[in-house]
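Follow-up to my post from last week.
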Amino acid sequence: MSTYTAPLKDMRFVLNELAGLGEVAKLPGYEEASPDTVDAILEEAARFASGVLDPLNRSGDQEGSKWADGEVRTPKGFREAYRQFAEGGWNALPFGPDWGGQGLPKLVATPVDEMWTSANMSFSLCPLLTQGAVHALALRGSRALQQTYIPRMVAGEWTGTMNLTEPQAGSDLALVKTRAVRVKDDKQGDHYRISGQKIFITYGEHDLTRQIVHLVLARTPEAPEGTKGISLFVVPKFLVQPDGSLGERNGARCASLEHKLGIHASPTAVMIFDHAVGYLVGEENRGLETMFIMMNAARFGVGLEGVAIGERAFQRALAFAKERLQGRDLAGGGTVPIIRHPDVRRMLMLMKSQTEAMRALAYVVAAALDFAHKEDNPEKQKHHQAFADLMIPIVKGWSTETGIEVASLGVQVHGGMGFVEGTGAAQYLRDARITTIYEGTTGIQAMDLVGRKIAREGGATAKAWLEELRRFDAELARSGNPDVQSLRGQLAAGVRALADCVQFIVSEKSQHAAFAGAVPFLKLAGIVAGGWQMARAALAAERLSSKPGDASFYQAKIATARFYGDHVLVQAPGLRDTVVKGAGGVMALSEEQFLAA
Amino acid sequence: MSTYTAPLKDMRFVLNELAGLGEVAKLPGYEEASPDTVDAILEEAARFASGVLDPLNRSGDQEGSKWADGEVRTPKGFREAYRQFAEGGWNALPFGPDWGGQGLPKLVATPVDEMWTSANMSFSLCPLLTQGAVHALALRGSRALQQTYIPRMVAGEWTGTMNLTEPQAGSDLALVKTRAVRVKDDKQGDHYRISGQKIFITYGEHDLTRQIVHLVLARTPEAPEGTKGISLFVVPKFLVQPDGSLGERNGARCASLEHKLGIHASPTAVMIFDHAVGYLVGEENRGLETMFIMMNAARFGVGLEGVAIGERAFQRALAFAKERLQGRDLAGGGTVPIIRHPDVRRMLMLMKSQTEAMRALAYVVAAALDFAHKEDNPEKQKHHQAFADLMIPIVKGWSTETGIEVASLGVQVHGGMGFVEGTGAAQYLRDARITTIYEGTTGIQAMDLVGRKIAREGGATAKAWLEELRRFDAELARSGNPDVQSLRGQLAAGVRALADCVQFIVSEKSQHAAFAGAVPFLKLAGIVAGGWQMARAALAAERLSSKPGDASFYQAKIATARFYGDHVLVQAPGLRDTVVKGAGGVMALSEEQFLAA
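User reply:
Got it. Predicted complex:
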């Protein structure tokens, strides 16, 4: 059986050689991120992920979270694991020291989050959602709300949720109906009463902590229709007394849990708010704005889930492929482990190369967010923010779509054993399947990319990135390595394909046409961005390969980059054709011509 | 909610305009397949699929088949449905009249099988496996065995299974260990005693019929090692008395059922044979040969599952997309059904166009099998057989891989609701996931295609097909329709890509290199073969579009073909590059360089 081992070598390589951890650590406020500290954190996190979280992954999937009388019991072992997680200070890692956090850059939190998700995606969603809620409060909460809630959420004593979706309001939050009525009474002071139903609420109810802090989108009675009439509220499960202790049970109850394809251990709640006491976060009618600001972080986090599941699926498939004896080698001889067969090897390489490409891109974007956050120079800051804004829908959309593909390849490597739940390979596919859906489907990411991130600014940031890619080609040209040169040609073709599409998007008058190719464009952008990082990795590996000790790692990095070129980047020109020529066909049929029979 | 509706219009279009049902019906022995009879059969089958099988699909998935004390209970409703199925004569449809079958061409059985699978894949596996067992007996069984078993299996009174896999012998049947020892006694006459364990036995135990007829691969004591020492046996669950009635319980028992990702209603048994009485089918040591002859039919049947699941997933997604209100139209106005949004439309078109392409190819191959079976002219017969042999790994590999993709798109169209099991969309993805694995994984299909079907004969059949594709280009050239001309260009590029790869395969000295690109090649071949059929469909639609009544159907067919070109066929040149240039990268890492961390 396969045990999760954090890919520390690749993580360090990406942190240091591609994402510029050294530069990030020089930013004001990130002085803690010294090489020694980062190493210690990564190693400790790796131990926790392998030793505590990974062993609960399968049992958690089998048992699932269970609802009874409004209470939810998480699977065996989850409470104890969460206690250790909070005590270890892991929940506090990504937060600023003002709130009791460790003040570490996002670039350091990112590999740590990757480990939690690889080891146990269902578990990882609880801290992920808490992070989202803390961010919203830190962004727009009143000082009083912040002081009451944030320190205990950072400590992991209380957890957080995001209550957005309603049965009729999924991707389209303009349709939110939950009501919030302002009242004053002597006991609770100035507050609102929240009533309505929310669905798909991750960790909306559980037994890991006593208190749960719900962030809830709702409408006040006079609010304008649509997205401009939605406000954000804090609705605690238990009212908080002036001394900070927990008081009365609030009217926020879990009516049921969803029976889902995957992430069984993560309770997905239907929440009923019945005159629940809530406190406004920020101003009335500006709730969606707050949500959108924090959406970047959430989307990045889900993109990282694609990387993490890809890594875990790869590790399990690899262990199986090395163990399972079946078939003879083409060269003759006896029965061999299936890793010896070219098609199994191809699948493993597809898993490995794409996971490495996704990881590199995600970490580079994490670094850009750190620069955008802490960089002094406003020009540079703006540049980094624009780059991160452009990349986040790509990280989210491409890494999750690819994560599913990698998890499915993991099943395939296992053959018949992959279809049997006991093996564990199928769980990654089931778990991964949500990632292209929540926090905005791939279609929503693609529209964000094409519409808000490219068309709206005439493609300025995208064109700046294309310029950077072209400058990078000159660097690649200097390599004498034939694998690098092969990849260079494919990357250049990818960049041309991307440039054609950006031109199409900024000049296309019909939004229908631009959006018809949005997902193929996002895929193209992801493939090229991943190829860019693989080529950077190959150059770094070439440079470092003469160092003693790790020659095999660097040689493998170059070969893996070459493989990515031949098996992944080659898709770029075809995707270009789909984007540029394929829009007409998308809308060619009338709705009536779509018939079931 | 969505109810299955057989796509009779498209089925008839493919049967008549692409697969040549009229010509098939002229073959000796297929006179029954008159237009009226075929119409009546399709309509009756459609009713049974929608009315009886489809309503049991979700409940069957939820309940699953259950094991207790060696007995298996199928889900509620399955017994009654099976009784009706057998009584309706459906089980007998594909068999010859000698055995009580209806003597209909495979081309007619194919849409009917598609309906069963679309409506209820778990149910459909029972008759599918019975068909396989009957074919093996009809092929090589002694007259006595045939007379004892076949008529009752054809009638559906007894069901059949195929016992190939053992824990250490999956894709590699050379490793089969189950023993068969020849004995004679007064009671059973000349027979064998079979002992061993078989796994992954579909419908290995169930309560649909009292008798189950197991076909079992095993080794006799003196058999040579490897594939040339495997024999095939009939092992009935109950011994059959001379008068045909069921006697003693045989030593073939179900030890447990697998807990699987999908097809929950279909019991996947672990079978223990403990000195079970078995009867040799054909000669000793030639069991695998028999299996391989009938493998074509089984692989074709699984390929058809890809078509069927694609169709069903499309229908469910379409129903949801027409119902679900979310978001405004890009052109403005109120909330609209999501089918109005370009990316949802794109997903539906991908589902629709690929399903239609897969169906067309599968039916055309079914017709080729009919011609190969019944054609008088030996030259023509050989030509049809060679074409079918070439196409079957493509139908199996490409249609199942694409079926999974289509089912996954179906989940995506549903958004968050797709991840919730209650919706039903996730089940198709879970069910579909086995199809690229059983009856030979996609990798095995691809090696069959590249090694046995192309390299071994110097590419003769593949080159003949390429010639046919080039001649067809001249037909396409005569069309004045711009959509057809667009598709023509993409098909021509696909044909060039295919030709390059065939050349690579026949001239490549290294089997490793040829096999490294086998799956991308299979995908390329499937995409081009599907594009060929879509182009044929477009020409037929152009020709027929002036007919009154169905103009909208034909116009949609042309637009769907155009879409397929822009969104699917465009991948062909990239796949060519992977096949021709990508082999080196597949084997570039040593096994030691594949590290978990």
